[in-house]
Amino acid sequence: MSDAVTDPPIEAQLERFRPELTGYCYRMLGSAFEAEDAVQETMIRAWRGHDSFEGRSSLRSWIYRIATNVCLNMVDSAQRRIRPMDLGPAGSGHATDPGAIHPEKIWVGPVPDERILPEGSDPANLIAERESIRLAFVAALQHLPSRQRAVLILREVLAWSAQEVADLLDTSVASVNSALQRARATLAAATPSAGDTYRPLDAEQRELLARYVKAFEAYDLRALTTLLHEDATLSMPPLALWLRGHDDISAWMSGTGSGCEGSRLIPVIANGLPAFGQYRASPTGDGHDPWALIVLEIADGRIAAVNNFLDTARLFPLFGLPSHLPPTDLP
């Protein structure tokens, strides 16, 4: 009887790359949904072409080449994804009209950590991975031309060598280094200060989030304000309106946004950041219905940005959040 080890089926070999490929495609495209489409297209092309894969490079390099080509085609045929802050100056918290509603395809959207971070990651590596999927970083990546974007992600995030990237992109090491230098300069100008990633073992961050949930569910705007930086922002894609500062955020929440009073929050993790599924009281009185995915950006122990993504019909299933919360005996 032969003792030879049989390689697993090609489908199984390809599938083990899905989380990291999804993370790569998400950074390239700025959308969790487009990233999943890109990865699925990559898997189909790899499965169809695996017989022609001759092992001149590793399977990982080969499938990344396919994914990169898929993403470059998608980037070049699409509008650059943005955040509300890219559309113009901050609005007024006293506004009764939230402004234009733009289609999902223009926004940088959130992504669940569990979709793109491999299980069992080393804690040190996990922090670095979370840094590279923060909303601000992914939004800044969208300012780069597509090939510069690929070079920077492969070199700076995935730690590929210049030669490996050159081989993948069919170019020279000098071209890769030049593209990386230009990308770094653009990114430095476009990326805000780093802020803090989600750290579940950090007692100070846990306390801040607990205070946020308590204040929000009680709709205690004074308590909420004490948790915000003075120049904190509030945004609500797909609405164009965004706000900056205590006064405007408080005015909005006590005025046009007052329907959020009585909400309940369920914690999740998005983009390496603490996040919550927000449910507003159902008009029928029968529990709570989805309203927003809230993604918080934290810096120096306070909340620097509150990002409310309102496309709950697609986002809540993506994050495994229930479609309705039944009534409870909680106050």
Summarize the structure.
Residues 15-81 form the RNA polymerase sigma-70 region domain. By secondary structure, the protein is α+β, with helices and mostly antiparallel strands.
Model description:
- This protein has 331 residues and is an alpha+beta fold.
- Strand 3 (264-270) and strand 4 (273-281) form a beta hairpin.
- The protein contains 14 helices and six strands.
- It has a six-stranded mixed sheet with strand order 2-1-6-5-4-3, with helices on both faces.
- Helix 2 crosses helix 3 (32-49).
- The protein folds into two domains: 10-88 and 114-190, Butyryl-CoA Dehydrogenase, subunit A, domain 3; 203-318, Nuclear Transport Factor 2, Chain: A.
- The mean pLDDT is 90.
- The N and C termini lie far apart (69 Å).
- Helices cover 45% and strands 14% of the residues.
- Interacts transiently with the RNA polymerase catalytic core formed by RpoA, RpoB, RpoC and RpoZ (2 alpha, 1 beta, 1 beta' and 1 omega subunit) to form the RNA polymerase holoenzyme that can initiate transcription.
- Keywords: Sigma factor, Transcription, Transcription regulation.
Blueprint of the fold:
Blueprint: H1 10-15, H2 18-29, H3 32-49, H4 59-76, H5 113-116, H6 123-131, H7 135-141, H8 146-157, H9 162-169, H10 173-190, H11 203-218, H12 221-226, E1 228-235, E2 242-244, H13 246-254, E3 264-270, E4 273-281, E5 288-299, E6 302-309, H14 312-318
Parallel strand pairs: 1-6
Antiparallel strand pairs: 1-2, 3-4, 4-5, 5-6
Helix pairs in contact: 2-3, 2-4, 3-4, 8-10, 9-10
